[in-house]
Specification:
This protein has 164 residues and is of the alpha+beta class. It has five helices and three strands; from the N terminus they run αααββαβα. It has two domains: 69 residues, no CATH class; 67 residues, Histidine-containing Protein, Chain: A. The longest helix is centred in the first third of the chain and has 46 residues.
Length: 164
Amino acid sequence: MKRPGRLAAAVGGAMTGFVAEYLLDPDRGRSRRSRLGDQARAIPRRFVRKASARTRAQGRYAAGVAHGVAHRLTHLRAPLPENDATLAQKVRSEVLGSEPFAGHAIVVTAVDGAVTLRGQLPNPSHITRLDHQVRKVAGVRHVENLVHSPGAPAPNKQGPRSAG
């Protein structure tokens, strides 16, 4: 390791002299030393104060996350419908009342959570969309989609027609 040169030693000595004169000044040295001591003692208190504030903030954040998880766990699913008629009516009101299904004659039946859809929709993409939306309704366990386009045979009739 290289030793400091004469210039560095001179600068270090001058700085030491300046600090000594500043702190040992007969007129204001006592108040300067006292203030320096107060500031030195305040460093740990400031650190503890900031650390405790940071810890409290992290605790509030963790409590909020835990509250959100608890809320999601207690509200996982909506209550299931009491019977099949209620489930069929729920599908009609939640899905068939919205566009593009409103105004089309779609028959909905439900047995033990299995929903059967019958009828016609003009657009094949609407048939697929209807199937997806019915599956999202709470209480629906299975969907049998027999909806078809006008002029096309119903999915449950294709086998017997082609055999004859």
